[in-house]
Amino acid sequence: MDVDVKVVPRSSRSEVAGVMADGSLKVKIAAVPEKGKANAELCAVLARHFGVALREVEVIAGATSTRKRVRIHGR
Predict the structure, then answer these.
(1) Is the pTM of the predicted complex or chain greater than 0.85?
(2) Region class of 24: left (phi > 0), else alpha (psi between -120 and 50), else beta
(3) DSSP per-residue codes, 11-67
(4) Which tens digits make up the pLDDT trace of 4-36?
(5) Which end of the chain offers a freer environment for a tag, N or C, measured as fewer CB atoms within 10 Å?
């Protein structure tokens, strides 16, 4: 399953904050967007949210953007 995500970095906590009008998930991330830290935390948040292992979540598009496409394997 592929999921479109809007990431809000440097938030007070990491969480799925809801669904945006265009259908993409809004995810708040506490990590700073440096050296892949925010992407790694995004994958961890989505793995918890969807109940899959961390290794089954990967950013497939938008690695340096706040708009990303994430693939959830096993769903």
Answers:
(1) yes
(2) beta
(3) -SS-EEEEE-TTSPEEEE--S-SSTTHHHHHHHHHHHHHHT--GGGEEEEE-TTSSE
(4) 999 999 999 999 999 999 999 999 999 988 888
(5) N
In terms of Cα–Cα distance, which of 2, 6, 4, 1 is closest to 65?
Answer: 6
Give residue 20's domain range: 2-72
CATH number at residue 63: 3.30.1200.10
**Residue 63 has which token pair?**
């690695």
Interacting residues of 74 by C-beta distance below 8 A, sequence separation 6+ = 52, 53, 56
